[in-house]
Amino acid sequence: MATQTTPTTQIPQAAPMTSTTMNNVVLLVRLVKSMRKMGCEPYMGEQDAEIAERWIRKVEKTMI
Fold first, then answer.
1. How many CA atoms lie within 13 A of 12 on its CB side?
2. What is the DSSP letter of 46?
3. CA distances from 40 to 9, 27, 37 (A)
4. pTM for the complete prediction?
5. Is-contact 33 9, C-beta < 8 A?
6. Could you list the pLDDT tens digit for every one of the 64 residues in the chain?
7. Which residues fall within 8 angstroms of residue 43, CB to CB, at 6 or more apart?
């Protein structure tokens, strides 16, 4: 009796985080937190272009 094997996909290893990368991540997290404090809502991934445009306009108003 032959056994069937399932094909496996190899997951590539993530690149090591450098101090520059970590600094960029920290800055991005701080920026997102401060924008939320100013009333910017997170984008929920809606596919409707009008909803996405309204979200972009809200972000722009928050940043100005």
1. 3
2. -
3. 39, 17, 7
4. 0.45
5. no
6. 556 666 677 777 777 777 778 888 888 888 888 888 888 877 777 788 888 888 888 888 877 7
7. 52, 55
The CA distance from 36 to 41, in Å, is 6
Query: Cα–Cα distance between 46 and 63 in angstroms, integer?
Result: 22
In one-letter notation, the amino acid at residue 11 is I
Tokens of 10: 């190899």
Please give the radius of gyration of the chain, using alpha carbons only, rounded to the nearest integer. 21
Q: Letter for the amino acid at 9?
A: T
The reported pLDDT for the residue numbered 59 is 82
Which two structure tokens, joined as six digits, stand for 56? Answer: 């972009």
Check: CB of residue 62 under 8 Å from CB of residue 40. Answer: yes
